[in-house]
Structure formats: C-alpha cells, structure tokens
Amino acid sequence: MKATKAKAPSLPSSALQRLEEVEDHFVDLWDNMSALWGISPTMARIHGLLYITGAALSMDDIMARLAISRGNVSMNLSKLVEWGLVRRVHKRGDRRDYYESLSDVWEMFTLVANQRKRREIDPILTTLRRCKEELSPETLGGLADTDVARQRYRRVTELLTLLSQMESLARRFFESHRGLRAAVELLAQE
Amino acid sequence: MKATKAKAPSLPSSALQRLEEVEDHFVDLWDNMSALWGISPTMARIHGLLYITGAALSMDDIMARLAISRGNVSMNLSKLVEWGLVRRVHKRGDRRDYYESLSDVWEMFTLVANQRKRREIDPILTTLRRCKEELSPETLGGLADTDVARQRYRRVTELLTLLSQMESLARRFFESHRGLRAAVELLAQE
DNA sequence: TACAATTTTCATATCATCCTGAAATGGATA
DNA sequence: TATCCATTTCAGGATGATATGAAAATTGTA
Description:
2 copies of one chain form a homodimer.
Chain A: H1 13-37, H2 41-53, E1 57-58, H3 59-66, H4 70-83, E2 86-90, E3 97-101, H5 105-134, H6 137-140, H7 147-173, H8 177-189
Antiparallel strand pairs in A: 1-3, 2-3
The first copy, chain A, binds a DNA duplex (30 and 30 nucleotides) through residues 40-42, 59, 68-72, 74-75, 78, 95-97.
C-alpha cells in the first residue's frame, strides 16, 4: 500500500519521471549483463536498482518498482547479501528491513570475480588435475607409452597451465579491490 | 551404423575403454565450464570431445559418442566453426565432413574472449554511454543540479570508467593469443 | 539429369529454470 | 503469552532455452 513514500522530498513529478526512465534503462542494462557476471537476471535487476538509486529500499519498494513477487525479491536479496553486494540496513522506528548496494564499483567487481572464482574456477581446476592424474604414466602404466595417451596428457597439461596461471593472476588482482584498481589503471594507460 | 571405425588401429579394447573414460570426464568438465565461457553446454561438450581426442571426427562419430541428435550436432558444430574454435576438414575419398578442434589453448581462449567482448561487452558499453548521456546536464537541464541527479551521474560514470578500462585492457591482451600468453606469463611469475 | 549421400532447417516436444502466492516461520511489542 | 507485522520457504505453474527427428536442401557422383 504505502510502498513509495520514502525519498524524493521535493522534485516535481515530471522530473521524477525522467529519472525513473533512466533507472529503467539502467536496470535493463544490468539485466543484460547478468550472464556476463554469472548471476541470475532478477538478482542483477535488483542490484542495478539499488546501485543506481543509491538509496536504501524496502522489499515493498523493490516489488513495486520492478514488478516482481515478494518471494522472488526475498530470495534474490538474500543472495545479494550473501555475495556481499548488498547490505541490510535499518531505519529507527521502522520494523522493515531496508537494503542498500555497495557504492564502489571496483569493490563490487572484485566481489563478483572472487565469488565466481571460488564457485566455478576452483572446482574446475580440481577436476582438471584429476584428469591429468588419470592420464599420467603412474595410472595408465604401459598404455601411457602410446601416441594417443601422450597427446592427451599434453593437451590436459596445457589447459591446466593456462588455467593455473589465470588463477594465480586472479588471486593477486582480486585480493583487494585496491589491487585490482591499481593494476588496471597501470596496465590500461601505458 | 559404421560410426566408430576410423582411428585406434591397434590398442587392446580394455585400454580403449580406459581412455574413453577419461574422455568422458573431460567432456563433463567442459560441460561445467560452459557457463563460464559463455557458450551452450552442448556446444562445449562437442568442443571438449574434439579437443581431447585431437582427432577429426564426423557428425556420426560425435552423435554416437555423446548421444545427441543429428540436428543438434549440426547446429552446434556450425556455431563452433563460426566462433573459430573448430574447423571443417575433409578426408579424400570420403564425402562426409570431419571436424577438428584448434589445439592451442591460448588461441582458443583468445577467440572466446574476443567473441564475448564483441557480443556482450561492447553493446553494454554503448548502452551505458547512452545512460550517461541521459543523465548529463545537457539532457536534464536544471534537474541536473539536484543531488539525486548528480549522484546518479557519478555512479554511471564510475561504472563506465571501470568497464572502459577493462575493455581497453582486453583489447590489448586479446589482439593476438601471443600477446595474451606473454602478458600472463609475465604477470603470473614476478 | 537423375540419384544417392550428407547436412541443414525447423516445428514440435522436452527440459530446466525461474517466478508466484500463500502458508509457515520468526520476532518484536504489549 | 497473544498478537501483529515482516520475512522466508516451497509446491506448483509459467517461461524460455535446448533437443529431437523428419522433411527439405545441398552437394557430389554416375
């Protein structure tokens, strides 16, 4: 009912409308980026809204603004909190929870990169090492002497080398968002 | 019918079986990586099979080995060829097409990165620039003097800065796979 | 040209994912 | 403890993506 009352103390309604249109475009943009960041579209839209408004919004605000159901907002907000992209804040005298996005883009990027690394890349490296193991002379015995086995061992090893090096780079750059920012600025200019 | 006759001239069948198990693991691995690389799972599996075997396989070989339908294999193979990860090869005296994966992991990585950049990142940058435009003083007029508008302009600008710098890095590193390899090795060790 | 082998296309079916809404839970107040 | 408000959970439904298989198109061969 009383979903939209919080902010916007004084702007004329036509101005508000203009700003809301831009918000919409921005949320759509986030939506399109979701696959790239490896998060679900709705999670991305909610985060986009929180980032661009810079405000602490309640579940009802978000439901109304993005036209999605309560349960959906609830689940995606908890994921966002879990990822560290959004934090819960409270307003005194109000029982509801409000949610606010991080404001530092470098920090957000670092968080997402680390989550993906932990959830996707690390398990892949583990599996790949096991594959390499399975193709090693110790496991294959005499079979390892065939051309076929040797070639496969080499291919797995090369892939492992690439991913390991990437992983080690990522570890260094994403340890803190300051590290990332410094590195990128350095590399991008020169 | 005569799907699997081509390679493997002399290995005992138990050895073949061992190797096929490893192939399976590798294909599964590729499957799991598909989201990370931004390609569909089946496309990834086919490519995984072609990469690990190092052989030129026909559609029938792939259908049989991965248990997927002809149409599916056909469509995904043409995508792989389009991306440049796989090439069509011919065997003399055989009307069928055979398909072979690139063998250089750095080259493959560079291809995928460039495709994603072109398909996903570049459009995002375009849209983001339009968002920034919509929030600029020129477009907003007097409204741009409000705190709200100023804050949003700043947020969009910061995001744009981050993505632009990333984009410029990517352009340099992914121009050729040699560039990437050299850069990663340099950064990873020191 | 007619034929046969192979590949491509695409309407339909299948599947996985995501969303909804209502019931269950939690937790503050009196 | 009883009540009220907010949040979470989850079974079932909606949606979109992917796979199938048979018909159409393509390409090489006689």
